[in-house]
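I'm curious: can you give me some protein's one-letter sequence along with its C-alpha cells because I've never seen that pairing?
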Amino acid sequence: DDTVIVCSFMVQMPSHDPVSFDIVYPLQTLKPISSQLRSRVQNEYAVDDRTWKERLQNAVLSIPLTLSAELGRPKTTLGKLWNSKVGDTFTMALPESVLIKIAGQSVFRADVGKVGPNAAVSMKNRVKDNRKKDV
C-alpha cells in the first residue's frame, strides 16, 4: 500500500446540489518537488491561496457547455416517416418559449429569435430547481 495525499473539493452551482470530488496524489510522485511545495506553503501561502482560488474559479467558469433548445415535437405516422425522403418537410407550431437545457437539466426558459443570419435564444427566466432536497 502506497501513501497518498488527498485534496478534497466541493463545487456548487446555483440551483444544484453540491458535488464533491477528490484528487489523489501518490506521495512518491510529489517527493521530487517536496522542497518546492514546502517553501511555497511557508512563504507565499496567503498570496498564492488567493491566486490559486481565482485560477480555479476562472478554470471552472471557462468550462464549455452545450446548450440545447427543443423547438418542437412534430407528429407524423410511421408510414409517412418510412416513405419520407431528403427534402420532405414536417411542419410544426413554434412554441412561444423554449426550455434551455444543459446535460438534460432545464436551466432557463427562453424566447426564440434571430441575430443576423443565425437562430438565437434570449433567456427570459431561470427555471426553478425541481429536484427534491433531503430534509
Remarks:
- The chain has two domains: 4-61, 67-126.
- Residues 34-61 form the longest helix (28 residues).
